[in-house]
Amino acid sequence: MEDRQGGDGHGGAGMVIPSKLRGDDPSRKSSLIWLHGLGDTAQGWASAMPMFQVPYMRFVLPTASSRHVRVAGPFPVPAWSDILDLDENAPEDREGFLGSVQRIQSIIDGEIASGVLPSRIAVGGFSQGGAVALSVMMRSRVTLGAFIGASTWLPLRDSYPAELSEANQKTPLLVLHGDRDGVVSPRWGQMSADFVKSSCGVSDVTVKIYRGMDHSACPEEFVDIGNFLRKAIPE
Fold this sequence. Notes:
Number of strands: 10
Helix content: 25-40%
Order of helices and strands: EEEHEEEHEHEEHEH
Number of helices: 5
Largest sheet: 8 strands, mixed
């Protein structure tokens, strides 16, 4: 596989997979910031990045800090926030989610400082990582190129539209879910997609449901992500 660089490229844990882009034209640089799920690390998604078939993109894969998560047992695990319960009405770890949003925003700012145009940066993630990605979409003051939420939900919905930034209302969003997901209900994913359209003014939302897929990923999903990225941020 491609050369991998340790760290998220901006002072945090994770991994960076450089792009295969040829030439020095800064306007062609692009980045995908991809966030893993609860208990995983950047390494867990590194092998999936080439399957998106966007070799011109730089992949930035941060690893979340380890913390105690109430639903995950007594030992610390990599997590973007605490999860108090898997019930849709359970209280949420606002401080944890917003801290992770701030970290991803700092990575976005670092990518822009390195010469990547904001319109050529995508942010996506799986499960809890996707929840952070959707939160970045709602809160970032920077208009980015694309967002992806896989097997996920939008947390802290009660804080919108009061805390909504309008910067990404026209940015395309791809929401993906398996119809047999027993961890994050596909209903949560659909409700989140409907909510960002109806209550947050996001106008370009695509929802894909995969028959027979549980809380995981599949080749068809990777193809759809690649097609979405190539359309939103062409080479």
